[in-house]
Amino acid sequence: MSLYSRLQRRAQEKNPIRIGLIGAGKFGTMYLSQIPKTPGVHLVGVADLSPGRAKANLELVGWSKERIDAASLEDAVKNGSTHVGDDWRKLVSHPAIDLIVECTGSPLHAVDHILEAFTHNKHVVNVTVEADAFCGPLLASRARAAGVIYSLAYGDQPAMICDLVDWARTCGFPVVAAGRGHKWLPHFCESTPETVWALYGLTPEQAKRGGLNPKMFNSFLDGSKPSIESTAVSNATGLGVPSNGLLYPPASIEEIPFVTRPINEGGLLERKGMVEVISSLHKDGRPISHDIRMGVWVTIEAENDYIKNCFEEYDAHTDPSGRYFTLYKRWHLIGLEVGMSVASVALRGEPTGVATQWNADVVATAKKDLKPGELLDGEGGYTVWGKLLPATTSEKIGGLPLGLAQQVKLIRPVSKGQHLTWDDVDIDKSTQAYKIRKEMESIWACKD
Length: 448
Fold this sequence. Notes:
alpha/beta
């Protein structure tokens, strides 16, 4: 039975999936816009640091004031309305709620929310992929121990890439490479919130009009977010990562099967079975036509002449050898597609992407020469950007994960381009995020 049919049945039986949403920013609001159009789903509550802003966002996407005026979660459950407040603990502990959608974008807080949800037997769809990047394997392990499901969020690129990889493997194809697109030139890794709009292609006036967050957008531009998302994909699928970070080969959609071959066959990959990100800019900065900037892709291989001939007979666009073929989705709709994860988790008991191993890591890397006493400002800021590395490399150098490089004081000088380590910073060791990361390192070190 299709997910939609199952949702319709839940609606008919008056037994909806009951959801709690933490964080009603841009991503969360996009999902909120779709809930009224989805049968069999009841948003019981929203927890946000600014309930007034959350209510305004609900009204922005068409929710009536009457529908969001529940005085309590209990009232919301009884009358099918939605409670908006600032107490996330009440949300994750309420017995009527089946599933939590974590949408804060704050990795340290997300870890707290997710672990607490597990203790109350709630499934979790985690939009805050930054948290998954530095401790996803252990979050997944904790979910299994609690008898619940932890999942990446469909609509965000990592879950969609995982879906393409699953399609390929289920059809019997070996995955040569998989990833997303991005607007990239090497010097973008030095971008700051002050330089982001010119490099991104917007004026400051356009950004202000749209209420766009320069730090958040800069995390995409400077390579941090592509590294974070590639880490999530690698840890979920087992695909390898480049030994010294993403290569960002420039390519049009038609050229992806050319560049995502191994080096010894004319491509750019170190070996088969890797994650990579395709740039939408030529090396001289010119835009590439028919780019994959906002999309996802997977490259597969025909392992024998029969399959190769099938590619040719059905006019599949391949590399010159006829063996490598790329399937893609050119766009993703972000929060508008989260309902796929909610339905899959709640109705089928299946995550839309989940970490199975510690294969990759994102290490904080200096954007400039840093001095003792400086505060790191995390993803998208002025001090560091995130570089994708194999987990074995990160563990060997004691790499500081980007997700924990926020409001942390330096105790040693770090040169521009240098990876930061645990020994370079004075970090708060009392947070759950720190503890679960170190626990994950110790567990996987024992497995090596």
